[in-house]
Structure formats: structure tokens, C-alpha cells
Specification:
Blueprint lengths: L5 E5 L3 E2 L2 E5 L2 E4 L18 E9 L4 E3 L10 E4 L8 E6 L2 E2 L3 E9 L4 E4 L2 E11 L4 E8 L7 E9 L3 E3 L4 E4 L2 E6 L2 E2 L6 E7 L6 E4 L2 E5 L12 E5 L9 E9 L4 E11 L6 E6 L8 E7 L7 E4 L2 E2 L3 E3 L3 E5 L6 E9 L2 E2 L1 E2 L3 E4 L2 E6 L10 E7 L9 E5 L2 E2 L2 E4 L3 E5 L8 E2 L4 E5 L2 E5 L3 E3 L5 E6 L6 E4 L3 E9 L4 E9 L7 E3 L2
Parallel strand pairs: 9-16, 18-24, 25-33
Antiparallel strand pairs: 1-2, 1-5, 3-4, 5-6, 5-7, 8-10, 10-13, 11-12, 11-14, 12-13, 14-15, 14-16, 17-19, 19-22, 20-21, 20-23, 21-22, 23-24, 25-26, 26-30, 27-28, 27-31, 29-30, 31-32, 31-34, 35-36, 36-40, 37-38, 37-45, 39-40, 41-44, 42-43, 44-49, 45-46, 47-48
InterPro entries: Fibrocystin, Ig-like_fold, Ig_E-set, IPT_dom
Organism: Neobodo designis
Pfam families: TIG
Length: 493
């Protein structure tokens, strides 16, 4: 009469989680009620408890001798001498080690875990006096990731048998290939060893080796790290020591092998002309060893595929780029060429503004056309109009749209006010004068270029006159455009 909603209890308090149930059979596994096997709430000594099968708020069945001859009570042992116990583990650190666990009351079917890694049991020794296993030997896998953690035995009758022993899975570094490359970095190398965790980070001569896309911490790569060397701070040969660290495992390992940053094989760029340009500009690059093989050309991460080889120099054609100031990078099989302060600049260039007027109160969408703007809207673009921020709403390589800001603190002079009465409306006719700058400008500033360009354009001026005439508040806004250079005082109607 067992149903899927039945529960099993051993005595009054200990639940037995069900793993399988059929109409006439229940399988359950006794639960660990406390981390300390010598203490279970409600029990102080060995006890015999009945098995109870019940349904919440429903019927209860107790297995007793009255119900069946095969029924009775389950003997619960809570004494330390009855449960398996791990007394010692040797060794306590290493990689791919054979571990020896000694203790008492092993049942002979335990599985062993060390620092989270499964340790394959190879053999067991029998304690004849106790008629139980006293020693377990197990082999750690060669590809286990570096970690530190407890050594536990998992026993089918008793569950997890914890111990106070802590094991450290070590990692090691065995070699690096290739073993030399450019001082400017950019060389893909493979660091080999054992036990590299998912957060393993390699250093070459104290310089971080950037982990590449081929390494993702999977099991097949626990023995390899593919990374890209970083540039040295100066042009000098260095025989760099290989070190691998892991913050997660709180571990590090150093190799007796080295990687050489070699100036003798490093191409050196000494001349780039011109140093500024636009889309379509041809740039000549020359130097030492730069023409020994065909490199990949990039500027600010953007490829420059159109390159031709001339007499001891390369000529590349600049493609469509954002406003940027950066070196033109040449990447060879052994890494980047060393570039000596040769930065190429592509400046943002403004060719037009539409519309060419705006209210003093702002809110007008302004489109600025040109080239070398950022391709997408972002924080790297700032537009100012007459020195005030113009919030960017959209941008492409050749156009930016922003919302004109209000002009702060205009200077106005009112003269000869005359009050005009109209039905349901009062209005002031005035002749105000407004201070205007000698030249108005629009700036486009890109985050990667330190230079801003000013272009004089005709802008708009407006004046809002607010009056309280008793019956209502009335505001009149007048817009007018002016050409540069403007008059110092421009009259508004």
C-alpha cells in the first residue's frame, strides 16, 4: 500500500530520504543529522529504533514483530568505535600522488575524495582483529586541478565519513614553447604543466601573459595554458622565468625553464610618415627588420589590409577609422614590432551643422556632419555648443545628433515698454538688446583624441520675457539667426 507521498522515519526524529518507492518496496538512505558523527540531536547512546512509514496528516505503519516475523528494530550505532574513522593521511600534498589512509571500521566499499578530486582506490588492508579494513590506498588523477580541501571517505552504509586532514593538490610548470620572441610582446606561447585551475594565470619575466581564447579551464587544458606575451617596458633582452598562479587555489608554481625576450629578433619601427591622415591616406613605415616577413597591420585594433612592400619599407592605406591617436602595430610570427613613439592620429573633422540656429532655451536637435566620429553612441563622444554640453542621442562615423543646451546668463536691456491690452490676453511690446559672442563654435571631442576642432557657424538666439500682469503669466519667445561675425548688439523684436 505504499504511495509516492509516503515518508520514512527511524524512531522519533531521524528522517530517511527515499530514493525509490513501489507499491510494496521502499528504498531510503539514512541522513547525516550532524557534522559530528558522535552527536545526533535526541540521541546520547546506541539505540534500537523502529522503522515508521507514514503519510503527512495520514495513516502510519510501524514495522514490528507483530506485523511480520522479518520486522523488528533498527540498531543505531553512535559510538566512534562503530563508525568508520580516518586517523591519518599520507602524503598531504602533491599531484598525481598515491595516498594512504589509515583508520578503523572501514567497510571495504568506500570511495575517497581529496580536495574535491576523486581518488581511485587501488587496494585495501584488512584489520583481522576488528574484522574490518584498516588501510585504504588510492591514486589521485594526473589532471586534477590545484586546490586545498578535506580528505573524506564516502561509505555506502554511513554516508560521508569526514576527517580533519587537509590535502593540497599542487600544480607544476614543466615547459614553454616557443621559448623566445619579440620584446614588444604579442607572441602566442604554450605553458605546459599539471593541475592548472580554471583561473590559472601565467607570468613571463614578471609580465602578465594574457590568456588566449584556446584556454578555458576544461579538463583537456588542465595541463596547458595558451597565452599572449606582454611587452617589456624597455627595449632590452630578458631571460624571463615562467610562473603560474591561482588565486582560487592560493597556489603558485615556477618553472626552471625560461622564455627569452630577444632584441635580436625584434623588428623595430623607426619612421612613420605622415603621422596624421584620413580615410585613404597612404602611410610609409620603415625601420630595422620590418620587411623580413609580411606582418599584420592594425591601428587601435582595426586591421589595415591594404599594404604593399616597397624598398625597405611598407606602405599601408588608412581605412575608415574613428578619431584616434595610436601607434600602427605590426604583428609578426614572433610577436609585435617595437614602435618608438610613432603614433598615428586620425582627427574628427566637422564639415557642417544643421540647423544653424537654436533657441536660447535649448531642446533643438542638431546634426553635425563630418568624418572619423565614433561608429556608435557612447561615453567617448562629447559635443559642446558655445561651451555648453550638447547631449548626444545618436552617432555614426559621419554624423552626430545632439540636443542643443540652453544658453546661460544672456545679458538683455529692455527699453520703452508699452502695454497692449487684448481680449483675454496681456502682452508687452519691448525692444530688448542681447549680448552675443564675437564667434560661436561647435566642438566635437572624442575620448581617444585630445584635440577638439572649432568651426564657426551661425547659431540662434532667443529671449523669453516673463511678465506677471495680474490676470496671467505670459511668455513670449523670439528666434532669430545671425551671421558671423555678428554685431556686438543685435536687436530682437
Amino acid at each position: 500500500g505504499f504511495t509516492r507521498d509516503v515518508r520514512v522515519r527511524i524512531g522519533a526524529v531521524m528522517q530517511c530520504p527515499i530514493t525509490r518507492v513501489t507499491p510494496d518496496t521502499i528504498e531510503c538512505t539514512t541522513a547525516i543529522v550532524h557534522a559530528d558523527p558522535l552527536y545526533v540531536p535526541g540521541y546520547t547512546t546506541d539505540q534500537s529504533e523502529p522503522i515508521v512509514v507514514y503519510v503527512a496528516d495520514g495513516p502510519t505503519a510501524v514495522c514490528t514483530t507483530a506485523a511480520s516475523a522479518s520486522c523488528g528494530t533498527l540498531q543505531l550505532k553512535f559510538g566512534g568505535m562503530q563508525l568508520p574513522s580516518i586517523a591519518a593521511v599520507t602524503p598531504l600534498s602533491g599531484q598525481s600522488q598515491l595516498l594512504t589512509l589509515t583508520g578503523v571500521n572501514f567497510v571495504g566499499t568506500e570511495t575517497i575524495q581529496a580536495a574535491g578530486a576523486e581518488c581511485n582506490v587501488t587496494r585495501r588492508s584488512i584489520d583481522d582483529a576488528r574484522d574490518s579494513v584498516s588501510t585504504v590506498y588510492c591514486q589521485l588523477p594526473a589532471d586534477a586541478a590545484a586546490a586545498t580541501g578535506k580528505v573524506n571517505a564516502v561509505s555506502a552504509p554511513y554516508g560521508i565519513v569526514p576527517s580533519t586532514r587537509t590535502y593540497t593538490l599542487a600544480m607544476s610548470v614543466r615547459g614553454v614553447t616557443p621559448s623566445r620572441g619579440s620584446v614588444a610582446g604579442g607572441h602566442l606561447i604554450t605553458v605546459s604543466g599539471t593541475g592548472f585551475p580554471i583561473d590559472a594565470q601565467a607570468f613571463v619575466g614578471g609580465q602578465r601573459c594574457q590568456v588566449g581564447p584556446l584556454y578555458r579551464g576544461t579538463s583537456q587544458n588542465l595541463s596547458h595554458i595558451v597565452c599572449e606575451t606582454s611587452a617589456l617596458p624597455s627595449l632590452a633582452t630578458l631571460d624571463g622565468v615562467i610562473t603560474v598562479t591561482s588565486a582560487r587555489a592560493a597556489a603558485s608554481a615556477t618553472c626552471t625553464c625560461t622564455y627569452m625576450y630577444d632584441t635580436g629578433i625584434t623588428p623595430i619601427v623607426t619612421r612613420v610618415t605622415p603621422l596624421t591622415g584620413q580615410e585613404g591616406t597612404e602611410v610609409n613605415i620603415s625601420g630595422s627588420r620590418v620587411t623580413l616577413e609580411r606582418p599584420e597591420f592594425t591601428v587601435a585594433g582595426v586591421p589595415l589590409p591594404n599594404a604593399t612592400l616597397g624598398e625597405l619599407q611598407w606602405t599601408v592605406r588608412i581605412g575608415r577609422l574613428p578619431g584616434v591617436r595610436a601607434p600602427i602595430m605590426l604583428r609578426y610570427r614572433l610577436g609585435y614590432a617595437w614602435v618608438s613613439a610613432q603614433e598615428f592620429a586620425v582627427y574628427p573633422f566637422i564639415t557642417g551643422i544643421n540647423p544653424r540656429w537654436s533657441s536660447y532655451n535649448g531642446g533643438q536637435n542638431i546634426t553635425i556632419t563630418g568624418s572619423n566620429f565614433r561608429g556608435t553612441a557612447g561615453d567617448t563622444i562629447r559635443v559642446t555648443v558655445c561651451g555648453h554640453e550638447c547631449p548626444v542621442t545618436a552617432s555614426t562615423h559621419s554624423a552626430i545628433t545632439c540636443v542643443s543646451p540652453p544658453r546661460a546668463n544672456p545679458t538683455a536691456y529692455a527699453a520703452r515698454p508699452a502695454l497692449e491690452r487684448q481680449a483675454y490676453q496681456s502682452r508687452l511690446a519691448a525692444t530688448p538688446y542681447l549680448e552675443v559672442p564675437q564667434a560661436a563654435s561647435a566642438n566635437v571631442i572624442d575620448g581617444d583624441a585630445t584635440t577638439s576642432y572649432n568651426m564657426t557657424r551661425s547659431l540662434g538666439i532667443s529671449l523669453a520675457i516673463g511678465l506677471d500682469l495680474g490676470d496671467q503669466v505670459y511668455a513670449r519667445i523670439a528666434n532669430v539667426g545671425y551671421a558671423t561675425p555678428p554685431m556686438r548688439h543685435h536687436e530682437l523684436d
